[in-house]
User: Which sequence fits this backbone?
């Protein structure tokens, strides 16, 4: 694979208080024709993340057609698991509803934050979302005792499948707590009640690697293909393949995209979302400082 970068297409806006800085963890959903809605998280003046969207024509991606003036999904009540951040991860359209799987953050003391996966539904076609529950969808348990986040969800017949981030431990590095997380697999009959067996999909390649996140899974010609972020010193985008979606082979050397020589994605590149449009593949992604300058677009070279 070789991805051709098209540059930044979405930037933070100082005139919208929900996205003063950052535009991170993008997800694209086709509206009609060539028009797409891109959901992502922005940060306000307190550095708290909420979910909003922009709409673009994929043929003219640098021309934003519409911004959500307010967050489409706001922070949870003080003290709940998502009172510090609600970050979109994946949307599934089911039975006339949109299922938004999102990352909820709560600030911590001995560790800087706690993260859990939540679920929300939209009553108005994705303009706004309402919580399924005030508690998390995938809470901490004996299989995932530290945190869960960054889910990719697919429905295949009567089986719902999820690939998600889970933390394996917190360590102290240079006097500061640091998480160590990779990607696991879960299944569900309805997209709400999930069975977790501790199946690891993408594991660490070395002792230096400590963060694997934001899986994005497509299926082509009977092969499951996953793009994700992996991190040692700085994030890079990785790639893996699987015959069944459970046992994966890491093929990071085939990802086909890396940091630029200079500019907004010269130090790190992460949080890929890959989608198809009229026979072409597109990738949304973030760059330096976890999306501080915005969201980039790349197109797969045929």
Assistant:
């Amino acid at each position: 694979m070789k991805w051709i970068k098209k540059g930044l297409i979405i930037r933070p806006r100082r005139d919208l208080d929900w996205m003063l800085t950052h535009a991170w963890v993008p997800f694209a959903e086709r509206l009609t024709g060539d028009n797409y809605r891109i959901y992502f998280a922005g940060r306000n003046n307190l550095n708290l993340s909420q979910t909003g969207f922009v709409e673009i024509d994929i043929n003219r991606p640098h021309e934003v057609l519409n911004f959500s003036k307010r967050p489409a999904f706001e922070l949870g009540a003080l003290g709940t698991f998502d009172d510090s951040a609600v970050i979109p991860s994946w949307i599934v359209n089911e039975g006339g509803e949109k299922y938004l799987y999102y990352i909820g953050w709560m600030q911590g003391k001995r560790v800087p934050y706690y993260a859990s996966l939540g679920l929300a539904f939209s009553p108005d076609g994705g303009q706004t979302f309402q919580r399924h529950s005030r508690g998390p969808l995938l809470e901490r348990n004996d299989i995932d005792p530290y945190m869960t986040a960054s889910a990719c969800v697919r429905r295949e017949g009567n089986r719902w499948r999820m690939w998600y981030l889970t933390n394996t431990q917190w360590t102290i590095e240079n006097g500061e707590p640091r998480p160590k997380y990779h990607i696991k697999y879960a299944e569900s009959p309805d997209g709400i009640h999930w069975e977790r067996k501790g199946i690891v999909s993408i594991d660490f390649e070395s002792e230096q690697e400590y963060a694997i996140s934001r899986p994005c899974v497509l299926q082509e010609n009977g092969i499951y293909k996953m793009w994700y972020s992996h991190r040692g010193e700085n994030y890079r985008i990785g790639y893996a393949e699987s015959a069944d979606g459970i046992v994966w082979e890491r093929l990071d050397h085939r990802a086909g995209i890396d940091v630029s020589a200079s500019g907004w994605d010269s130090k790190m590149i992460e949080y890929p979302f890959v989608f198809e449009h009229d026979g072409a593949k597109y990738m949304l992604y973030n760059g330096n400082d976890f999306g501080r300058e915005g969201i980039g677009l790349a197109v797969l070279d045929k």
